UniProtKB/TrEMBL annotation, chain A:
Protein name: Lactate utilization protein C
SUPFAM superfamilies membership: NagB/RpiA/CoA transferase-like (SSF100950)
Domain LUD, residue spans: 59-223
Pfam families named in the record: LUD_dom
Organism, as annotated: Actinacidiphila cocklensis
Automatic annotation (TrEMBL), chain B:
UniProt domain Cysteine-rich: residue ranges: 3-83, 138-223
Protein name: Iron-sulfur oxidase subunit used in L-lactate utilization
Keyword Oxidoreductase in annotation: yes
UniProt KW keywords: Oxidoreductase
Root EC class: oxidoreductase
GO (cellular component) term, any one: cytosol
Entry GO MF terms: oxidoreductase activity
EC number: 1.8.98.-
Pfam families reported for this sequence: CCG
Gene transcribed to yield this protein: lutA
Automatic annotation (TrEMBL), chain C:
Domain of life: Bacteria
A single MF term (Gene Ontology): 4 iron, 4 sulfur cluster binding
Record InterPro entries: 4Fe4S_Fe-S-bd (IPR017896), 4Fe4S_Fe_S_CS (IPR017900), FTHF_cligase-like_sf (IPR024185), Helical_ferredxn (IPR009051), LUD_dom (IPR003741), LutB/LldF (IPR004452), LutB_C (IPR024569), NagB/RpiA_transferase-like (IPR037171)
Any GO BP annotation: lactate metabolic process
UniProt name for this protein: Lactate utilization protein B
Region (Disordered) residue spans: 468-489
Amino acid sequence: MTAADKASAAGSSREQVLGRIRAAIGDAPAGEVPRLDPALRTYRDTHVPDDPAVVLDLLAENLADYRAGVHRCTPEDLAATIARLLAERGARAAVTPPGLPRPWLGAIAGTEVIDDDGTLTAQRLDAVDSVITGCALAVAETGTVVLDAGPDQGRRVLSLVPDHHICVVHAPEQVVSSLPRALPRLDPRRPMTWISGPSATSDIELDRVEGVHGPRTLDVILVSSPPRSG
Amino acid sequence: MRVALFLTCVNDMLYPQTGRAVVRLLERLGVEVDFPAGQTCCGQAQYNTGYRRQAEPLVRRYAEVFDGYDHVVTPSGSCVAMVRDNYPRIAARAADEGRDEGLAGAAAAAVPKTYELTEFLVDVLGVTDVGAYFPHTVTYHPSCHGLRMLGLGERPRRLLQAVRGLELRELPGAEECCGFGGTFAVKNPDVSAAMGQDKIDNALSTGAGVLCGADNSCLMHLDGMLRRQDAPLKALHLAEILASTEERPYMAAETTGKIR
Amino acid sequence: MSSTYLGLPSFPVAAAESTRDEQLRANLRHATHTIRAKRATAISELTDWPELRAAGAAIKDHTLAHLDHYLLQLEAAVTAAGGTVHWAVDADDANRIVAGLVKATGETEVVKVKSMATQEIGLNEALAAEGIHAYETDLAELIVQLGDDRPSHILVPAIHKNRHQIRDIFSRQMAAWGRPAPDNLTDTPADLAEAARLHLREKFLRAKVAISGANFMIAETGTLVVLESEGNGRMCLTLPETLISVVGIEKLIPTWQDLEVFLQTLPRSSTAERMNPYTTTWTGTTDGDGPTDFHLVLLDNGRTDTLADSLGRQALRCIRCSACLNVCPVYERAGGHAYGSPYPGPIGAILTPQLRGTTTELDASLPYASTLCGACYDVCPVAIDIPDILVHLRERITEQRRGHALERAVMKAATWVLDHPSAYALARQTATRTRHLHPTELPAPTPAKAWSNARDLPRFPGRSFRTWWKDRPAGEAPHGRPAREDTTR
């Protein structure tokens, strides 16, 4: 088959499929832009009260339910918390995305910090113990953190290959209660990873066990200022 | 209130005692029951096996035979589901084919007045204690049509719980299909029998003497398996339990021995 | 569909064998009952479940009603984002496209994310014929591939294997495919998962080409979405240079915001989780992050035939959660292989005969593989009325296939009798008069024999209801008759 034949065959598959679809559904009126009737969306926008403290507690509860380590701290304690988690893990090396705020790393001792310059290969990352990232958003009802490859999150491979992921969430600004509230705040043109607990499988007797290919340990740090007194 | 009994073809052929029990029960509750002789079958077997058009004459017959009655009561959940869910579909599909042939009117007339027995007792008559007496241990199989299509919910159990002398035992896996499924029982006999076996094993595990249901087609399948295995459990329609009183108690049938 | 499924026996024949496999029955019972209770709990957390279900159905129906429009929108968006879109009318078309794309890279190995569409078209076999080795990376798919087996469940293709059997397969077969299983591998799920992690990691790290499906495609943005649990999907979607996604045309939804429905309903229906551990979304290619070459193969393969049936097209709403399998009493006893397609259980019984047609004994037997108990419809997160479609397909089969002539004649005669009360009365009376001649079981291979293999035939009563009714004194009091005659069964 020549290249021209191939191009023509591909064109014909496209026209065949579209032609079959049009025959199957009947021709819609020309020029009509379909729009789903918004009245069909009768489900709830959220299932939790609009109270940031309640939402944050629910996020913590749901993350822990799926075996993420949940650690709450103030902005002042963030660097110490990250350092403690790396030390407890015994991490020799940790990778960071280029836009991760440097003050977060200020208390680390005994762990080599490797700044991703975009050239680290998967093989190289396989020898790195931990990764530290921020996130784009967290969803309380599902216990999910969303990474959208922003500057403090980096390439998707960073949070995939190392076996230990430390993810920092700032509350309340990065926490939403529900999926309907999460989606408008995310840009689908960016590559995204939605993470709800460490990797898991239900493939053996339909019972969930944690830990397969993705990071087997997920530590989520929920950073929030203490409520002001008075 | 003009009330007609729709006996159904299975009961007409095989389980007349269920029909007699319904009549006695309803009359005891002060309902005047009629039995229009022109009735035959709802058409479920034809429809479910893929012969929709063969069910059409039976849709019209049903509407004609029960014309003029306020309520049609039947001791078979699957036949009620046939009328309620599928008669309108049969009419709609005929309309899609450019036909009506009286089907839309027949379906519209049949649906609102057709009641499964426990619906009629609880919703129309407003009774749960029908004054019955049945001194045996009973476990109840809800049947798929009653459970999922009609949403009978707690009605049958509330009726049973009000029966004096009756001890109701929970049936494990009650919501699961018994494996009858009309022609499924002969088209897929091995799976059907496997499902039936699990159902009767669950029923036997309760230690009850009676496996009660509200649909004789399911009970025919289960009873056939119980009799083949000579199991110490009797399949019995709910109407026969509700018809039983201290003055006229239910007595074990001639063919299947006594309730243990 | 794939040659893997050619020449398989009809459902009742295959199921007759599998119902006798005690190990299989025990494995399926354990797994399906485990997930049933969990699913019910997960769904009870959402008070608006019925509304989410209705919205999911409405979004899918709307998309299908304008499928050409949305596919063109998707094509434009993917292309603008640096991807290449291919269209495939059938399995051969799709396999040819994918094999050509892999060969163009010069690679002879690919890693795969679990994908129903590529199972449906038999892609692995087609690639093998071209000298390309496809490695399955989902744990259950790995079990199936190492065991030279066929998948038997949409979500958990190795559901028919228990942990002991999985341990044996890993210990025996992993060495032939790459890194061997650890010595003294135990059958605890955590150890089995660890063995899979070690076995597959070297493949992920060296892979240059990956093949995936997708759970959703977003028309307005050209975004593809893959939900998974293990991280093998992230590995395949992120590490290789070339990514080829084969996706059925019905996987489309109009907008990014529409995900708010399906990301609530799919994980809870599927693995009974509030959310699956990992969801990856990508739009074309991104500089410096993930594959540099992205191809989307849009697959018809019978979907437009399904779309042409205004009732049966509901099956195209399916989001492959497998909740219907997990509650199906027939699936639980017959097992997934009896359905002879990658789509077992209730959804398979309505999807396969629509995608493949009903020309084979197997495909024509699938719509009958149900008691119409309705459990599947109750749990379906997009409200596909599976029992209604089963009946509809039975009608198609009785009209189109030979071999139903006798049944058709019987049904016709039955209707005639039932529509003529005097004939009906005669039939009833004859049965009653000859009752003492009726056996409790039958010798000949008839439908009645199929009944009486496991059950006694029902007995015909001595006295009909109509006789009793007719003989009843007018205005008979409720207590006017002896009870004994009421008990004849």
